[in-house]
Amino acid sequence: AQKVTQAQTEISVVEKEDVTLDCVYETRDTTYYLFWYKQPPSGELVFLIRRNSFDEQNEISGRYSWNFQKSTSSFNFTITASQVVDSAVYFCALSERGGAQKLVFGQGTRLTINP
Amino acid sequence: NAGVTQTPKFRVLKTGQSMTLLCAQDMNHEYMYWYRQDPGMGLRLIHYSVGEGTTAKGEVPDGYNVSRLKKQNFLLGLESAAPSQTSVYFCASSYSWGSAYNEQFFGPGTRLTVL
Known about the structure:
The structure holds 2 protein chains of 2 kinds. Chain A has strands at residues 3-5, 10-14, 19-21, 24-26, 32-39, 46-52, 59-61, 64-69, 74-79, 88-96, 104-105, 109-114. By secondary structure, chain A is mainly β. Chain B contains no helices and 11 strands. The chains are: A mainly beta, B mainly beta.
């Protein structure tokens, strides 16, 4: 069975600090996709990134970067020079091969950036 | 292009009452999903649909029914609401084409309270 664990329930940092959100997943499949979504205080879910199991290259997008390591079944998310607008709940999710593209979400990490 | 919309945004029910949540998308997506979000548990899949006229159970389907009579609409019904169904409900949709698993687009959510 597939499972996603985000062990950090809440993180609070001061603005401009770097912060890493951890995501560990379990799956028996060799083909799968990993996602990160952001849920700001307004409540909607915003797609951030998708990564397939065959692509272990790290990704950088502005202040955001993602580190995918199959050896440790982790897909961690780092925000560099955090800003107050980064305050949100962040979800990691997993989708296995098999149709319907269903997502299994982690519990979420609530990130608070203090000015 | 409204994306994914949900009706209503808020609702308060008494135990035993019934209601229907409406999800509509204007992106011509084949796949649609209903999730519930509860504190500390992330999002959990209730039901999903891979096309007009088809539905399937997700992780937590008990107490809910769904219908997909039109491609653009996905309805979630509660026949006899229970306090345990107090939650925030999200509808999502995604493309079905291509070899890569596509991200899901989420609606704004419906906050339901069952007294």
